[in-house]
Amino acid sequence: MISDDNLQTIPTYPLLGRLLFWLLWLMGLLVCLLFCLFVLITVTGRGMGGLLTVWNLLVASGEIYLLSQAQQALSQREKPMSELLWRAALAGVGLPMLAATGCGMLSGFMPRLAG
Amino acid sequence: MLLHALFDLLSLLCGYLLSTWFRCRYSLERPAGITDPSQYHYYLIALLLGLVGGSVLFGSLNLWLSGQSGLAKSMLGGVFGAIFAAEGFKYFAGIRHSTGLYFVPGLIALIVVGRIGCFLGGLADFTYGVPTTLPWGVDFGDGVTRHPVQLYESATMLLFLIGLLLHYPRQPQFWLRQGFYLFVLVYAAQRFAWEFLKPYAAVFGSLNLFHILSLGLILYALYMLKRSTHHAA
């Protein structure tokens, strides 16, 4: 039986916070799927192959890790909303920024660094 | 461009390691004035969104103004966006301290190493300088020797980093109070200078978009330096 004390320690997340979380999380998922596609393209030899496959795999793996950690933290309800949003922001915005590094993996697909 | 990607990763690693060492060495647990963990997370989110937004917005805008298509990132745009977001957050959160020094050593390491990646990225990176006959001009592969402006920036910021690391133990309060604004001033001033050596489109007289952003940052830094000096007195 859950006591009142235990109830007080479980955070209740506001609706806006949850919406933002899922928005960022879905952005991360899209990036993850995109880089999985890049992996397929580079593996099948239509891209530049080799090390780029490793890079795309790293990004996709990083996204999977961040997304699963964020989702787990949400379902366990042990972390404050701010930390959940930070984790989702890392997955949805932070890692994609890093992934689109330099002049990109596949010309025309990725942002370039200029300035 | 894979070389550029590897240097970007290396720059992140260097930034992270230097930043972690600096915080541990001088016991900087969180940015000054931010004590609540939740506030710290929201502050980081604001910084991240500002950094990414500013970086892509101004990087792409400069690319389009220069007659090229696509999306681009810009470190200067990122710094501009992050400062804008951080100051907005601090205003609404009622934080009056300078919070930026916490990030400065890592950020400089990012610039110093990252710019070497830009240099190695060559012509495709669109970060090279205008043609020059100076003996240290670099041929990026098209037979034209150009200013290696990426390395000018890298060297300037490395000097600033050395100065910070040497001087911080003697005047920690000065650096905590004004170090971030000093960093912004130096970064923006050197960028303003190097922009004259870049082939970007002018948007106001002979000034390009990054000149204007740099000027904005210089004014911001001077104002904040003056304000923090006044408050310290």
Would you mind describing this structure in some detail?
The complex is a heterodimer of chains A (115) and B (233). Chain A is an all-alpha fold. Chain A has four helices and one strand; from the N terminus they run ααααβ. Chain A has helices spanning 4-9, 15-43, 51-76, 81-99; one strand spanning 112-113. In chain A, helix 2 (15-43) runs antiparallel to helix 3 (51-76) and helix 3 (51-76) packs antiparallel against helix 4 (81-99). In chain B, helix 5 runs antiparallel to helix 6. In chain B, strands 2-3 form a two-stranded antiparallel ribbon. A two-stranded antiparallel ribbon of chain B has the order 4-5. In chain B, a hairpin with a 5-residue loop joins strand 2 (138-139) and strand 3 (145-146). The relative contact order of chain B is 0.13. With 233 residues, chain B is mostly helical. Chain B has helices spanning 2-25, 37-65, 75-93, 104-121, 149-167, 172-195, 209-232; strands at 72-73, 138-139, 145-146, 202-204, 207-208. Chain B has seven helices and five strands. Helix content of chain B is 67%, strand content 5%. The chains are: A mainly alpha (115), B mainly alpha (233). Strand 1 of chain A pairs parallel with strand 1 of chain B, so a sheet runs across the interface.
Chart the SSEs and their pairings.
The complex is a heterodimer of chains A (115) and B (233).
Chain A: H1 4-9, H2 15-43, H3 51-76, H4 81-99, E1 112-113
Helix pairs in contact in A: 2-3, 2-4, 3-4
Chain B: H1 2-25, H2 37-65, E1 72-73, H3 75-93, H4 104-121, E2 138-139, E3 145-146, H5 149-167, H6 172-195, E4 202-204, E5 207-208, H7 209-232
Helix pairs in contact in B: 1-4, 2-3, 4-5, 5-6, 6-7
